[in-house]
Amino acid sequence: MQAEIKGTVMPILEIALAQGEYVVTPHGELAWMTTSIQMSQTTSSGPAGGAGGGLMGGLKRMLGGGGLFLTRYQGPGSITFAAKVPGHIVPVDISAGSTYLVHRHGWLAGTPNITASVAMQQSFRAGWQGGEGFLLQKLDGEGRAWIELSGEVTSYDLPPGQTVLVHPGHIGMFASTVQFQITRVPGITNMFFGGDGFHLVALTGPGRVWLQSMPLVILAHALSHYLDKGGAKDAVAGGAVGGMLGGLLGG
Fold it and tell me: Coil, strand or helix: which one is 62?
């Protein structure tokens, strides 16, 4: 198996698979592939009865933001996955005993025997994450996973005991050796965080953390005002133009 990340602002992940090799993906992120690639649905990321298999494995993936089934792409051939928004695709190698916690929609694809489940869920009373709250999925097993992070990405290697406070949406991924805790800053309320105040996540080393500059939920929230206003303006403009054309044609 050979994998290459190409591009800059909107990267793609291109994987060449030999006969019998395969990768799995939780969200069906296919961009393009050769005709020799075989697609199938599975509940297991490994061989039959292997890693993350069965109904229970699928339910754990669903709790972690994925789906009940995985899509398997088997070689020989080439397959390409594309980022959904401007950002980066980050590869991580996972071995026995090493676990990574990833934001809800971060896992793009993985080699056999990568398993995904829910790491934690935290609900807030209003607004944040469109009502989804704060959710992390856990990736473990053995193999390589590719993670999609939004915007620019910065990583920090936290020494033991060092803590960084992070807005929940800016958390991209971190090693399981990093301790995390939801904290609330009282006295700060607005339409985005609602009555629960301002929530931050305390990440404490040791371990590496990857932070993303453009969380999808914040981007969607920022654009929503312009999209609503733009839609209304477009409707008015369209009506006016339609009326003028109708008058000319009728004349």
Answer: helix
Burial label for 157, CB within 10 Å (0-12, 13-18, 19+), is exposed
The strands making up 30-33's β-sheet, listed across from edge to edge, are 2-6, 12-17, 77-82, 30-33
Distances (CA, A) of 68 to 25, 47, 49, 117, 233: 12, 17, 16, 11, 41
Kindly list the domain boundaries of the chain, sorted by start residue.
Answer: 2-151, 224-251
CB under 8 Å to 250, separation ≥6 — which residues? none
Task: Give, for 82, the enclosing helix (H) or strand (E).
Answer: strand 77-82
- Domain 2-151 belongs to what topology? Double-stranded beta-helix (3.60.160)
Query: Residue 24 pairs with which residues in a beta bridge?
Result: 72, 110
Give the pTM: 0.77
Compute the distance between CA of residue 24 and CA of residue 22 in angstroms, rounded to an integer. Answer: 7
Are 247 and 239 spatial neighbours (Cβ–Cβ below 8 Å)?
Answer: no
Instruction: Identify whether the C-beta of residue 107 lies closer than 8 Å to the C-beta of residue 26.
Output: yes
Which residues are registered as beta bridge partners of 78?
A: 16
Using DSSP, state whether 188 is helix, strand or coil. Answer: coil
Contact 152, 86 (CB under 8 A): no
**Other residues' Cβ atoms within 10 Å of the Cβ of residue 209:** 21
Model confidence pLDDT, tens digit, residues 123-171 = 544 444 444 557 889 999 999 999 999 999 999 999 999 999 998 889 9
